[in-house]
Structures are given as C-alpha cells and as structure tokens.
Amino acid sequence: MTNSAIVHVIDDDRDVRESLSFLLDTAGLTVRAFESGVAFLDALPRGERGCVVSDVRMPGISGTELLARLREMGVGMPVIIITGHGDVPLAVEAMKLGAFDFIEKPFDDSVLVAAVEAALREDERREDDHAAKADVVARLAMLSQRESQVLEGLVAGLPNKTIAYDLGISPRTVEVYRANVMTKMEAASLSDLVRMAILAGAVSKSGD
C-alpha cells in the first residue's frame, strides 16, 4: 500500500469522527475527517488516492447521495458505508451504486480496519490498471495505420491469409507487419497482444 493513500472519514457526529480517526490512525493509516459530504466534496482534490468511510445517514448529503456524486464526478475511490441496523436497505442501495462494502453498527474495530485496508488495496489495483492502460494506449499510438489494421485482424482471431486478403496485401507482408506490431506493443505472445487490446478498449472482451 502506498503511503500517499488517505482514508477520508465522513460523519456528522463529532465523537464518531474522532473515534474512527483515532482507530485508523493507530492502525498506521493517514486520515482526514469531515463533518459532512459537502465539506468533503469541497476539499477533495482531483486524482487523490485513498478511500472513503462514510455514515449512511447525514444531513445535507447522505452516504448514498455522496457515492452517486463521486461517481458522477468520475472519482473512483472505494467507498465504505457505515450503517445502523435499520439502515441496511440504504446500505444495499449504496452497494448497487458501487460502494466497496458496508459495515453494520456495532462493529469490531478489526472489522473496520480490515475493510479499509482492503479498500486501499483495491484503489491501488485500480491505479495500477489505469497506468497499465495508459502505457498500452501510448504503444498503440506508435503503430502505423497498416499495423493497426493488422492488429485488428489479429485480435479478431483472423489467420494471416484472411487478413492479407482483406487488406489486399500478401501473407508474407502481413507476417512482417505482425512482427512489427508485436515488437512495438512489447507483446510476448498473441494472447498477450489480445490482452493489451482488451485493456486499452481496442476490442471488447466478448469480441463484439
């Protein structure tokens, strides 16, 4: 886990905020506390790493409304919702909106810490995926138009002869372009090349 990741604790109850902050700080995590969803959104810089721990019922913006706002803004930080027994339906709604987890009160400290650590690992994995995608997209941009056409044929599962026929070139020329594509994309195998194309969105997982 990177040290730059921050746990954003949001609760309108001061005692709860301080208690959660102390717990997470004791676990070695960096914490910022906010008294409302509005205060959190006002202070949130774009691209910040970490996760959110929010009560589901708050004045102004509820936990589910906050989650919806974050998704609209394109903020992908994992969100953990804390809920009372009677608020479980709201927590389920939050899960449908993309919440990472919900924890029902009362809960053991270890349960919350474990959930936060899992959320931070998920955020780090997402960040790694973004970086990998950006790298693949950059490699794709290095391909010539013809190399891109050959790549499309390869990820579609077409044999060299079919690609050659479709492009009006010889199978031998397709082999040359294929080798160039593999080199520029730094692909170890055809399956590796297809995986990269899927990651970059150049082809759908279903092949549609």
**Overall mean confidence score, pLDDT:** 87
The best one-word shape is elongated
Query: From the alpha-carbon coordinates, what is the Rg to the nearest angstrom?
Result: 23 Å
The low-confidence runs, each spanning 5 or more residues with pLDDT under 50, are: 204-208
- Main β-sheet, in a few words? 5 strands, parallel
Q: How do the strands of the widest beta sheet line up side by side?
A: 2-1-3-4-5
Distance between the termini: 36 Å
Helical segment count: 9
Domain HTH luxR-type: 136-201
GO biological process, one term: phosphorelay signal transduction system
Pfam families: GerE, Response_reg
Keywords: DNA-binding, Phosphoprotein, Transcription, Transcription regulation, Two-component regulatory system
How is the topology of this model organized?
Elements: E1 6-10, H1 14-26, E2 30-34, H2 37-43, E3 50-55, H3 63-72, E4 79-83, H4 88-96, E5 101-104, H5 109-141, H6 145-155, H7 160-167, H8 171-185, H9 190-199
Properties at a glance:
alpha/beta; Rossmann fold; single chain; 2 domains; 208 residues; Arc Repressor Mutant, subunit A; disordered C terminus
